[in-house]
Design goal:
about 475 residues, alpha+beta, 10 helices
Length: about 475
């Protein structure tokens, strides 16, 4: 029996080690036709890309860098993504462990005493030759092969492949969260600086209009200005005055938004350089479109999901084939602990088992079809993520190019309006023009200065969106 046990064990191990049959399709990356150049980029793109830079190499404001660092440490979405990575890694360990034998050890001792008044009467003082022992002790030490599936068809290997792909997908999702987080903090910070600039414009405009109102009231007392002139000047004053609390409201809400991204309670946010002093990289190359597939974490996340879906097909198809499992135990058992490892105390059991599905009412076929449909869905999601990435990069390139042009033209418009405001007030004070022209020019200046501040912010946001679209930000 000892030789038979060895032969069976060796045969089982050889089958397990030499099993190379893995059912299901082997994954290969789908062919994707990448454009030669991004729309909106130069005709001859450079291999280098701003998306390869680290976020602190793109955003130079020290205070913004401090906010991003805090967000990378405390943001709740990122911490949740990290927890999901740890969870996926643990799931991979659990799934992978099923490929190996599960062995447990046990040791025990049983002590029992027979009643002297039971079915067999035991005298209190048994004489010579009386062989019944009232107290008995049994000890045992066993190694149990709880369960071991011989993975002939690769079912467990496919499950491990899917779990590994899910782990990599969760890691790519963590990188995607970092990219989004960096972009969100930078965007909210630039919004905050733009609102600060709007507040400064509103306060400066209010002070200028209050001075004009005092002058008009003085002229009214002298009989030069009319009550209508005073009311029109008051309208401009109140317009600027009501704009101030509205802008302050937006500032406080934006600060609360940034604080949430930082994982902190609502409070004020310290600023660095003002909006007009924010530095931008002198050159912003987009790089080659083909490199986008490797840089953007959301594309790699979609591909890892496709790999997992592909492996699940093999897992489902393996259910058609016999399942070979091994169970058993080996150890020692004796009624005397001193003789536990000597004599004929060995005890073993070996149970190989084969299970073959015969009739499942179409469950196996439907399961395979389900996994094939899920793979097709994952493939379409992968292709869609690539097309979406190309579109986002193109939109960001066009936005950055046009935002600079818009800001330049708006600056020229503001310069012209400022000169227009100065001349009507001079003519009005000289008595050769009406107050209405001066007030209209003042109103145009206020509105266009606000628009110019927004255009400056939009130029910075275009850089943020391009950096995010090119898959930058997670390279920490």
């Amino acid at each position: 029996m000892k030789k038979l046990l060895k032969r069976q064990t060796v045969a089982a191990l050889m089958v397990s080690l030499t099993a190379a049959c893995t059912v299901g399709p082997k994954y290969s990356r789908p062919a994707i036709q990448s454009p030669a150049v991004f729309r909106g980029a130069p005709a001859a793109p450079e291999p280098a890309s701003i998306g390869d830079l680290k976020w602190f190499e793109v955003f130079k404001d020290e205070q913004l860098q401090s906010l991003i660092r805090t967000a990378l440490e405390q943001n709740y979405d990122l911490r949740i993504a990290v927890a999901r990575v740890i969870e996926a890694r643990a799931r991979l360990g659990i799934t992978r462990s099923e490929q190996f034998p599960q062995i447990s050890g046990s040791a025990g001792m049983t002590s029992s005493q027979i009643s002297t008044q039971g079915p067999v009467i035991i005298p209190t003082s048994p004489g010579p030759g009386f062989g019944i022992t009232r107290t008995r002790n049994f000890g045992s030490i066993l190694l149990d092969l709880v369960s071991f599936e011989v993975d002939v068809w690769g079912r467990l290997r496919r499950a491990t492949e899917a779990a590994r792909a899910n782990l990599l997908a969760s890691e790519e999702n963590r990188k995607a969260v970092i990219t989004t987080l960096v972009a969100d903090v930078a965007s909210a910070y630039f919004d905050l600086l733009e609102l600060d600039m709007e507040l400064e414009i509103a306060r400066r405009t209010l002070a200028t209009r209050e001075q004009s109102l005092e002058l008009i009231r003085t002229q009214q007392q002298g009989g030069v200005a009319t009550t209508l002139d005073v009311r029109q000047a008051e309208q401009l004053v109140y317009t600027a005055a009501v704009a101030i609390p509205q802008i302050q409201l937006q500032i406080e809400q934006t600060e609360n938004q940034i604080r949430l991204l930082l994982g902190e309670n609502p409070d004020a946010v310290v600023r660095g350089h003002p909006l007009i002093e924010q530095k931008q990289p002198p050159a912003v190359p987009a790089g080659l479109p083909s490199s986008l597939l490797e840089r953007r974490p959301d594309i790699r996340f979609a591909e890892e999901n496709l790999i997992a879906a592909n492996a699940n097909i093999g897992f489902a198809r393996a259910a058609y084939f016999p399942e070979i499992s091994l169970t058993g135990f080996f150890g020692f058992e004796s009624s005397q602990l001193s003789n536990l490892f000597t004599g004929a105390t060995r005890k073993w059991n070996f149970v190989p088992q084969i299970t073959q599905p015969i009739f499942t009412a179409g469950r196996l076929r439907s399961t395979v079809r389900l996994t094939e449909a899920q793979r097709q869905e994952a493939l379409l999601q992968y292709e869609k993520s690539i097309k979406t990435a190309f579109r986002e990069v193109s939109d960001a390139l066009v936005q950055r190019s046009r935002a600079g042009e818009i800001r330049l033209q708006q600056q020229r418009l503001v310069d012209a309006v400022r000169d227009r405001v100065r001349l009507p007030y001079m003519r009005y004070r000289g008595g050769v023009d009406t107050l209405l022209n001066a007030l209209d020019a003042d109103r145009d200046q206020f509105n266009n200065e606000i628009i110019l501040a927004q255009d400056r912010r939009n130029e910075l946001l275009a850089l943020v969106q391009l950096y995010k679209a090119l898959g930058g930000g997670w390279q920490v």
